[in-house]
Amino acid sequence: MPTNQTIIIGSGMAGLHAGALLQAEGVQVTLLEAAAEWGGCAGKFQRGKFRFPVGATLGIGFEDNGIHRRVLNYLGADLSVISLQQAMTVRIGGEDFPYFTNREQFLAMWAEKEPETFPQIAAFFDEAWQIASALRKYMSHYAVLFPRTAYEWQALFNGFNIRSLKLAPYINKTMKTLVDKHGLADTDSFIHFINGTLLDSMQTTYEHVHLLLGATALNVYHEGAYYVEGGLYRLAEELVESIKINGGTVKKPSRVVAVARGNERRWSVKDHRGRHWEADNVVFNTGINNAADLLPSAHRDKLSKKFIRHSVPEKQWGAATMYAAVKEDVIPPDAALFYQVLVDPAQPAEEENHFFVSLSAHKDLKRAPEGFRTITVSSHIRIENWQSQYAYDDKKAKFIAAVKRELETLFPGFNQAAVHFESGGPVAWERFVLRKSGTVGGLPQTRENALWNAVSHREIGSGLWLCGDTVYPGAGTIGAASSGVHVARSISGKKIL
């Protein structure tokens, strides 16, 4: 019999998907969020008349068979999104490469940019898309590695067809195999393009990313890219509302400080105000770095070697972010809503050299009043280089200066037209989103971390569950949401979706 009391710690995308699905199935959910806002890394904050998405901004998974659309439909909820013909503009050393969602337009762009190597580029993407298409069949059934229950085995077998056999040669390869096969390692613009995409979604580059997941990352924008008015926090709010409508409880701010065995082998959860809850199941949507700290020492001593190996903060990236509000008249009418910028192709794609820029849409009044736009800029940083106060201040200042220079290039007159600036580094992410050491984005999806080598949602013991970007199936809102589906299925005992 399925248990009927579940506490979810954290309102990131994974915890919200798990909580909304469980509550819809009649499992009594209590969701506890430490911050003042819902959504975790996909949350928001307000500064006067301006609203800023914290981190995640570009919407994926809203197409007809995408995970967010399927979950919203399952819950009887809705969220209006705007389909984008161009997911983003990738700017490499000042040259723009439009990332068209339409595959033919996308390939035509490459034919124009790299005519000499275009046949190899087209063959590379054709093969990557075929790999992703075969893997998507598995993903649509939310298969678990490794399966334990009857419906998990069924999900695995339902994803199998004759095309699945084509995945066998790629099982333990990196994307470097595919790049080398098509002779593209020396085509600089192509390498910078795919590396930027992979770094944003898979947290690593083509030399190291697992081939199956790398192919999926290069295919995902062709399945659909979307702008959500206001920001992705609106998806978080829809899921919170679903939990409440179906009889669940949501509380913020309520920072969990300890999880221990309670009465009758149930779990007891305590928050920073001294309040206690008991439940049959506790779901940690906290990142694995934080989860172990909440458990009693006797339980921590029994954690698996895999869990301990993956929970080292230094294995993950941090983020530097800058938020700005600007008068709209400096934004060109044809400006993209999303940019990925590599300032100097000769330098590493991190810190003050590589940014993801998200611009609010014209007349998105949920983010800025008429006549203004808001901008969120983020960059991967190496946390170990930001440890001393001097290093932190120095790197933050260099990051801000580099971002302002690039925004002035993108939008001439920007610095004079800007009416608000603020920025944050790993300390801000740890303070406001409670990501330990300021880690964000999940583990790099390398062969050592991905798929069967990832931490399972059931890794830490009976009645305790993990979800989020640091567990299987991995990084990004789609990966995090999928882990929430796995948790909801395991606790409810039902093949949800």
TrEMBL record:
Signal sequence, renumbered to the chain: none
Alphabetized GO MF terms: oxidoreductase activity
GO biological process: carotenoid metabolic process
Amine oxidase domain: residues covered: 13-491
InterPro entries: Amino_oxidase, CrtISO-like, FAD/NAD-bd_sf
Protein name: C-3',4' desaturase CrtD
